Amino acid sequence: MSSGGAWRGDIKARLYERVRERGFDSLTAFAEARPAVPLFVLTDELGNDVAAVQVLSGLLYEAEQSKRVTRFVRDVLVREVGDGLPNGWPPVLDDASRFEVAMVLGRWSGYIPGTHEARVRQASDSLLAKPPPAGWRPLGPDDELLRTLLPDEEA
User: Where is this region: Disordered (predicted)?
Assistant: First the structure.
């Protein structure tokens, strides 16, 4: 978790310095080496003076630059499912499990750019209307079901 130092100094320089220290040339490469790892865990790996929102913002920036925002959106869902549903998709959507799923989908929708709000809402509705198999836990942004729900559209 981040301490107060996360907002001091050159945030961008600090992020990229930490990523390079770990042998990566971008935040995206760092994150891709850890598929399905929750965002807060990635952040903790970079130090206690880094905030998750900084990592998320950096990942979105890189996705925009490489025209891979939809893949970023899928990646965020993978990380949220890994964090909020560690045993995968529940076999039955009773009140308790529906709440857990709603929390995952709600956090996901809060982390994505406005350009993808409608698509994320539609994908969330699809997941609730026709749930994936019990135990489904995507292992990366290229998961077949996720690519069906959110196909790449960027040029």
Answer: 131-155
Residue 51 CA, chain-centre distance (Å), reads 15
The pTM assigned to this predicted structure is: 0.91
Widest pairwise Cα distance in the chain = 48
State the angle between helix axes of 39-46 and 11-21 in degrees (0 to 180), rounded to the nearest 10: 90
3-state secondary structure of 62: helix
Tell me phi and psi for residue 25, to 5 degrees.
-100, 0
Query: Hey, what amino acid is at 94?
Result: D
- Summarised one tens digit per residue, pLDDT across range 50-89 is 999 999 999 999 999 999 999 999 999 999 999 999 999 9
User: DSSP per residue over 3-38, as a string?
Assistant: -GGGGSS-HHHHHHHHHHHTT-SSHHHHHHTSTT--
* C-alpha span between 116 and 110 (Å, rounded): 11
Residue 43: how many CB atoms within 10 A of its CB? Answer: 21
Six-digit token string for 79? 């990380």
- Provide the phi-psi class of 47: left if phi over 0, else alpha when psi is between -120 and 50, else beta: left
